[in-house]
Amino acid sequence: MRIAFFVNSIEDETPTFTTTSLAMAALSRGHDICYLTPGDFVLRADDSLSVRGRVLPGKRYKKAESFHAALQGDEATVETMDIGEVDVLFLRNDPSLDADGRPWAAHVGAMFGRLAAARGTLVVNDPDGLSLAQNKLYFQGFPQAVRPRTLISKSIDEIRGFIDLHKEGVIMKPLQGSGGRNVFKIGSTGEANLNQIFEAVSGEGYLIAQNYLAAATEGDIRLFLMNGRPLEKDGTYAAIRRVPAKGEVRSNIHAAGTAVKVEITPEILAIAEMVRPKLVEDGMFLVGLDIVGDKILEINVFTPGGLSVMLDLYGVDFSENIIVALESKVAQRDAYDGAIANRILAAL
């Protein structure tokens, strides 16, 4: 089968990205792959949908660096193909990265993903589900038992009132965004720079204020879910603990956080089970939960990362499991001659 990976840009891809791991796993299992970016869709006058994909030759790469060099170099070619030639469209872009510089590109994946699904291509995560998750407000649709106390507002007075109610402090961040950008811990309304922080964050739109969780000093746990259930291979869960750098409240690897092994307890599995029904209903095939204590801070449904780090820590390659799951979905799609809706098949 052919898998198309939709990303923000080819130039920004790296050997350590999870998309790289997935693409290499697909090649190793004998599949064709290509990469798409926001400008690569063409809807023609006859209502046919084509894509301009960056195609790599069907060979196996032993090292991620070699794969990355081939993707960026002359070994890759650009081919125009009908979307019917693509079995799986894997949406792996981060809309927040395009929100400021080229807002037209932010939601192209979901927009054209719907058209691709209507023409029989399996699209994961489901584009309609992703449209619901275009900002962190999506998180409020999950059970309150797994969420921190949260305020969403653009009012400094509302923010101040929320801070006064939480003596342990609050975390403030933009409603839209990722990668730990503009995330601040506020201890009290007496902090001298509160107004400056508010102005900086509110400039991006609505703000989220959440009660600070003391367990955050130990970092958060990134746990992968596939088809709504924890991703597991040979008794090892696809999970890491991300420990923040000294003086940081963010544990993101991009923000100098450190990844270490983590034991997945029955309590963590219970948290994952709590969010499973909605993720399945929304067609979320591959998801990353960020867990602190007994709460989930975020649910990453666009570009959950960390598979290469997990391979280094545990010696377990979870990417192959993900590709095998896609093979099964394509087989089910073909067996039912497209009668199963994409949203159901995506998380089946």
TrEMBL record:
Annotated ATP-grasp domain residues: 136-327
Cofactor(s) the record lists: Mn(2+); Mg(2+)
Protein name: Glutathione synthetase
Underlying gene: gshB
Pathway: Sulfur metabolism; glutathione biosynthesis; glutathione from L-cysteine and L-glutamate: step 2/2
NCBIfam families linked to this entry: PRK12458.1
Catalytic activity: gamma-L-glutamyl-L-cysteine + glycine + ATP = glutathione + ADP + phosphate + H(+)
Broadest EC class assigned to this enzyme: ligase
Organism: Shinella curvata
Family classification: Belongs to the prokaryotic GSH synthase family.
Matches recorded under HAMAP family: GSH_S
EC number(s) per entry: 6.3.2.3
Top-level taxon of origin: Bacteria
UniProt KW keywords: ATP-binding, Glutathione biosynthesis, Ligase, Magnesium, Manganese, Metal-binding, Nucleotide-binding
InterPro entries in the cross-refs: ATP-grasp (IPR011761), ATP_grasp_subdomain_1 (IPR013815), Glut_synth_pro (IPR006284), GSHS_ATP-bd (IPR004218), GSHS_N (IPR004215), PreATP-grasp_dom_sf (IPR016185)
Gene3D superfamilies membership: 3.40.50.20, ATP-grasp fold, A domain, ATP-grasp fold, B domain
